[in-house]
Hints:
- The chain has helices at about 10-15, 20-30, 35-40, 50-55, 55-75, 90-95, 105, 115-125, 195-200, 215-230, 275-285, 295-305, 305-315, 320-335, and strands at about 20, 80-85, 110-115, 135-140, 150-155, 165-170, 170-180, 185-190, 210-215, 235-240, 250-255, 260, 270, 275, 290-295, 340-350.
- The chain is an alpha/beta fold.
- It has a domain at about 45-155 and about 215-250 and about 270-350: 3-Layer(aba) Sandwich (Rossmann fold).
- The strands form three sheets. Strands 2, 3, 4, 5, 10, 14, 15 and 16 form an eight-stranded mixed beta sheet that branches.
- Helix 13 packs antiparallel against helix 14.
- The chain is globular, with a radius of gyration of 21 Å.
Amino acid sequence: MLSKRKINKTKLLKNEKNFRLDKFIEFALFGNNGYYLRKKPIGRKFDFVTSPEISQMFGEIIGVYLLYHWKEKINSKFNLIELGPGNGTLFKDIERTAKILPNFFKNAKIYFIEINKELRKIQEKNLNYFKQSEIRWSKALNFRSKLPSIIYSNEFFDCFPVRQFLNDNNNWFERYVKFNEKENKYYSINKRVISKKILNYLSKYKRQKIYEVSYSRNKYFEQICKHIKKNRGVCILIDYGYNKKIKNFTLQAIYNHKKTSIFENIGQQDISSHVNFNELIEIAKQQKLKIKEFVSQRDFLIKYGILDRKKKLLSKNLNLKKNLLDEEVDRLINVDRMGNLFKCLVVSNL
Length: 350
């Protein structure tokens, strides 16, 4: 799960000459003054714009997919869990789509996993259709319920801290972070890996020059898979990522829609990395779950009707501007934009 442990900067610097990269990222994102605890990150005026903010059609396609799975595979009371709801836009589009199947929400116990207080306020405001008692907010996953679950997320798994390893002539080095008190700045160093446990793990990647891993991301997803295996359900996640060997590290920082160094604007900017979908797929298989879908965002949205949805919107409302809808869809499915970079993974035992 996303750590709720708060990292004290002063204590961290005094007690350690250097510290792992993932600990620095956790500090910058989730510490006392971390980015995800205190800032509104999502929207055209902020650091990044997600697919639901680009077009209502994205959420509508997700909604139709979830409705189908519930009706065909569950059709009873269930948990509906959104990981990192952002502004609540995706849920709002799903809610509007679900009007074609009223029993969907009548049987749903709704959970939002959200650690950002400011975003929670926005969610409560944007989702006033629901009484607050009908949505349960939590900072972490809590799988006490034994009901089947539908779990979904968009751009959630990219925010987990990563560790970076470099292979130099069969010697593995890990990237660490140091703080220069005189210059008052952070910088990275490479530290040779001596842990036998880690070296044994890295032996699987001896043919690679680099390896980037998020153990916390993998553990979080494993927790979801174990719950689905035990209680039935489906998990659909959409994020930017890869399923091939990477030639370069994917860690990046975004500040006001521009890429920056991870050591700048600490606590004020987004830090993320591409999701290694191969590892998530392997975790799901280890839990004996079916891989229902693993495709690009482009293929998923086209397969489940975004082009037809665009036509219907234009035919129902002549005031809609065709070029605006064309731009929205192009941004979502164009292979040179979000279409290929973003992947959709659906795992289930239904």
